[in-house]
Design a protein that fits this description.
It is a single chain. The protein is an alpha+beta fold and 174 residues long. It folds into two domains: 3-128, Alpha-Beta Plaits; 130-174. Helices cover 57% and strands 15% of the residues. It has a five-stranded antiparallel sheet. α1 packs across α3. The longest helix has 43 residues, at 131-173. The termini are far apart.
Length: 174
Amino acid sequence: MNKENKQQQVAQMHDKLKQAKAVFLADFRGMTVGKATTLRNELRAASVEYKVFKNTLFDLAAQDTDMTCLAPYLAGPTAVAISYDDPVGAAKVLSKFAKDPQGAFVLKAGVLSGKLLDVAQIQALADLPSREVLLAKMLGSMQAPATNFVGVLAALPGSLVRVLDAIRVQKAGN
């Protein structure tokens, strides 16, 4: 690969890193081709870009971005997963493959909104519910007071009717 191609790749990766919401690094040594293909497919379905990139070129591309803190983790074969939309979805897929008992896929570190994440924090991110579930819970919480208020308002006329009926029964009994 000549110098111009490397410069072009570094520039492209730099642009991607600036747009990324989250970036994760992993060691993929020992992964079978089948598992690597499955990982790529699942990441693609989660709208995550997955690349194997040279460490020195990644280090150059990370300059002037929030990803410079990943430099200490750029050793050995490194795969880069870049999420532009939902970092939780990316973390879920990556942590699922990192839990493989054979240990062929190992998470190194990640960056979310400029903050360095260790493996435990990536796992905690993966354990979060999906965006849709969180939105549904929030909507339910917002609707609960209105629903309860309507229930109370609807109960008042019913209570009035029952009190009037009790008074009628009492007067009819006398």
